[in-house]
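name: query_chain
kind: protein
chains: 1
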Amino acid sequence: MESERAAAETGVPPDADAVLEDELSRERDELRALAQRVQADFENYRKRVLREQASVVERATEGLVESLLPVLDSFELALGTLDGADEKVRKGVELVYAELLGALEKAGLERIETDGALFDPNVHEAVMQEEGDGEPVVGETMRNGYRLKGRVVRPAMVKVTR
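structure:
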Protein backbone atom coordinates (compact mmCIF):
# COMPACT_ATOMS: atom_id res chain seq x y z
CA MET A 1 0.00 0.00 0.00
CA GLU A 2 2.73 2.38 0.86
CA SER A 3 4.36 1.93 -2.56
CA GLU A 4 1.02 2.50 -4.20
CA ARG A 5 0.58 5.66 -2.15
CA ALA A 6 4.07 6.85 -3.14
CA ALA A 7 3.33 6.03 -6.76
CA ALA A 8 0.07 8.00 -6.57
CA GLU A 9 1.89 11.02 -5.09
CA THR A 10 4.81 11.05 -7.57
CA GLY A 11 3.02 9.67 -10.55
CA VAL A 12 5.69 6.97 -10.98
CA PRO A 13 4.63 3.29 -10.96
CA PRO A 14 6.17 1.17 -8.14
CA ASP A 15 8.37 -0.97 -10.47
CA ALA A 16 9.81 2.19 -12.08
CA ASP A 17 12.11 2.67 -9.06
CA ALA A 18 13.61 -0.76 -9.63
CA VAL A 19 14.01 -0.03 -13.34
CA LEU A 20 15.63 3.31 -12.54
CA GLU A 21 17.97 1.63 -10.03
CA ASP A 22 18.93 -1.01 -12.59
CA GLU A 23 19.58 1.66 -15.19
CA LEU A 24 21.69 3.73 -12.79
CA SER A 25 23.58 0.62 -11.71
CA ARG A 26 24.25 -0.34 -15.34
CA GLU A 27 25.41 3.21 -16.15
CA ARG A 28 27.69 3.22 -13.08
CA ASP A 29 29.21 -0.10 -14.19
CA GLU A 30 29.76 1.21 -17.72
CA LEU A 31 31.44 4.37 -16.41
CA ARG A 32 33.62 2.32 -14.04
CA ALA A 33 34.67 0.05 -16.92
CA LEU A 34 35.41 3.11 -19.07
CA ALA A 35 37.51 4.64 -16.28
CA GLN A 36 39.44 1.36 -15.89
CA ARG A 37 40.11 1.20 -19.66
CA VAL A 38 41.29 4.81 -19.69
CA GLN A 39 43.52 4.12 -16.70
CA ALA A 40 44.99 1.02 -18.38
CA ASP A 41 45.51 2.93 -21.64
CA PHE A 42 47.29 5.70 -19.77
CA GLU A 43 49.52 3.21 -17.94
CA ASN A 44 50.43 1.53 -21.25
CA TYR A 45 51.17 4.95 -22.76
CA ARG A 46 53.38 5.88 -19.80
CA LYS A 47 55.34 2.61 -20.07
CA ARG A 48 55.77 3.05 -23.83
CA VAL A 49 57.07 6.61 -23.41
CA LEU A 50 59.55 5.45 -20.77
CA ARG A 51 60.79 2.65 -23.07
CA GLU A 52 61.16 5.12 -25.95
CA GLN A 53 63.07 7.58 -23.77
CA ALA A 54 65.40 4.82 -22.56
CA SER A 55 65.94 3.76 -26.17
CA VAL A 56 66.84 7.33 -27.21
CA VAL A 57 69.33 7.59 -24.34
CA GLU A 58 70.87 4.22 -25.27
CA ARG A 59 71.23 5.22 -28.92
CA ALA A 60 72.85 8.52 -27.94
CA THR A 61 75.22 6.73 -25.57
CA GLU A 62 76.06 4.17 -28.23
CA GLY A 63 76.84 6.91 -30.76
CA LEU A 64 79.10 8.72 -28.33
CA VAL A 65 80.91 5.54 -27.31
CA GLU A 66 81.43 4.52 -30.95
CA SER A 67 82.89 7.93 -31.77
CA LEU A 68 85.32 7.62 -28.83
CA LEU A 69 86.66 4.18 -29.83
CA PRO A 70 89.24 5.64 -32.26
CA VAL A 71 90.43 7.93 -29.45
CA LEU A 72 90.84 4.88 -27.24
CA ASP A 73 92.80 3.16 -30.03
CA SER A 74 95.06 6.23 -30.38
CA PHE A 75 95.78 6.21 -26.66
CA GLU A 76 96.70 2.51 -26.81
CA LEU A 77 99.07 3.20 -29.73
CA ALA A 78 100.57 6.16 -27.89
CA LEU A 79 101.16 4.07 -24.78
CA GLY A 80 102.99 1.50 -26.90
CA THR A 81 105.39 4.13 -28.25
CA LEU A 82 106.20 5.86 -24.95
CA ASP A 83 108.87 3.40 -23.83
CA GLY A 84 111.71 5.94 -23.98
CA ALA A 85 109.62 8.96 -23.02
CA ASP A 86 109.87 11.02 -19.87
CA GLU A 87 108.26 9.25 -16.88
CA LYS A 88 105.95 12.21 -16.16
CA VAL A 89 104.66 12.22 -19.73
CA ARG A 90 104.08 8.47 -19.64
CA LYS A 91 102.22 8.70 -16.31
CA GLY A 92 100.09 11.56 -17.66
CA VAL A 93 99.10 9.65 -20.79
CA GLU A 94 98.39 6.51 -18.73
CA LEU A 95 96.22 8.54 -16.35
CA VAL A 96 94.15 10.10 -19.15
CA TYR A 97 93.81 6.71 -20.85
CA ALA A 98 92.67 5.09 -17.60
CA GLU A 99 90.09 7.84 -16.99
CA LEU A 100 88.71 7.57 -20.53
CA LEU A 101 88.55 3.79 -20.30
CA GLY A 102 86.90 4.00 -16.87
CA ALA A 103 84.23 6.41 -18.13
CA LEU A 104 83.48 4.18 -21.13
CA GLU A 105 83.33 1.07 -18.94
CA LYS A 106 80.93 2.88 -16.62
CA ALA A 107 78.71 3.47 -19.67
CA GLY A 108 78.72 -0.31 -20.27
CA LEU A 109 81.67 -0.79 -22.65
CA GLU A 110 83.65 -4.02 -22.36
CA ARG A 111 86.56 -5.32 -24.40
CA ILE A 112 86.09 -8.50 -26.43
CA GLU A 113 88.64 -11.11 -25.39
CA THR A 114 90.63 -12.29 -28.39
CA ASP A 115 94.12 -13.74 -27.98
CA GLY A 116 93.95 -17.53 -27.83
CA ALA A 117 90.16 -17.60 -28.13
CA LEU A 118 88.33 -19.69 -30.69
CA PHE A 119 87.45 -17.63 -33.73
CA ASP A 120 83.84 -16.40 -33.54
CA PRO A 121 82.59 -14.48 -36.60
CA ASN A 122 80.01 -12.76 -34.38
CA VAL A 123 82.70 -10.93 -32.42
CA HIS A 124 85.84 -11.26 -34.55
CA GLU A 125 86.65 -9.88 -37.98
CA ALA A 126 89.34 -11.99 -39.64
CA VAL A 127 91.68 -9.87 -41.76
CA MET A 128 94.57 -12.34 -41.99
CA GLN A 129 94.94 -16.10 -41.91
CA GLU A 130 97.83 -18.31 -40.98
CA GLU A 131 98.17 -22.07 -41.30
CA GLY A 132 97.99 -24.06 -38.12
CA ASP A 133 96.53 -27.26 -36.82
CA GLY A 134 93.05 -27.78 -35.46
CA GLU A 135 90.22 -25.34 -35.06
CA PRO A 136 90.50 -21.69 -36.08
CA VAL A 137 91.97 -19.72 -33.18
CA VAL A 138 92.71 -16.01 -32.83
CA GLY A 139 96.46 -15.72 -33.18
CA GLU A 140 96.94 -11.96 -33.03
CA THR A 141 94.75 -8.93 -32.42
CA MET A 142 95.11 -6.09 -34.90
CA ARG A 143 92.43 -3.88 -33.33
CA ASN A 144 90.47 -4.43 -30.14
CA GLY A 145 86.76 -5.09 -30.36
CA TYR A 146 84.14 -3.88 -27.92
CA ARG A 147 80.67 -4.66 -26.64
CA LEU A 148 78.31 -2.06 -25.24
CA LYS A 149 75.88 -3.55 -22.73
CA GLY A 150 76.33 -6.99 -24.27
CA ARG A 151 75.90 -5.90 -27.91
CA VAL A 152 78.91 -5.84 -30.26
CA VAL A 153 79.59 -2.25 -31.33
CA ARG A 154 82.86 -3.08 -33.06
CA PRO A 155 84.20 -6.56 -33.78
CA ALA A 156 87.84 -7.29 -33.00
CA MET A 157 90.09 -7.25 -36.05
CA VAL A 158 92.18 -10.41 -35.78
CA LYS A 159 94.64 -12.76 -37.46
CA VAL A 160 93.29 -16.32 -37.45
CA THR A 161 95.43 -19.44 -37.17
CA ARG A 162 93.82 -22.49 -38.78
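note: The first helix runs from residue 2 to 10.
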